[in-house]
Design goal:
168 residues; alpha/beta; 3-stranded antiparallel sheet; 20% helix; 23% strand; globular
Length: 168
Amino acid sequence: EEAVVEIPANQNLLTGLADLSEEAIGKRPVAVMVNNVNKALPQYGIAEADVIFEMHVEGDLTRLMAMYADYTKVPKVCAIRSCRYYYPVIAHGFDAFYVNWGFDETMRDYVNSLGIPYFDGMVNAGKMFGRDQGRINSGYSLEHTAYFDGTKMAKHLNEGNYRVDLLD
């Protein structure tokens, strides 16, 4: 006799844990690009990520993509950075919203061709993005001060014309 395993309705598809809020069940995750160079440390908001992808970008540098299964509980994340070609493909595979700060026009065309919704701090500054004044005052270079205020994500998605449900 085979045992029947019951999967809880609030199972986090990224971790397997039953920890999603009622509002996040069956909803799309959020993928956020995060700087990973020494001059940008410490990052904040990444400890709450369900999954972190780290990949090579150039030279000896890597960049992170923090993924949050519960779009209603994304924290403020800093320091966010620009897109690289392979990260949107990963986000697309999870049907995620993609968040970054800047990319060149060929990259924009590429991301648009994937059909994934993205939020770019270079374009949408002020809505869910900003500069960390404490970091600026502490002497961080400007490219290490950009943040994404994920606490505003759910409201922004609900007010906009976005598909928040996962594809079947």
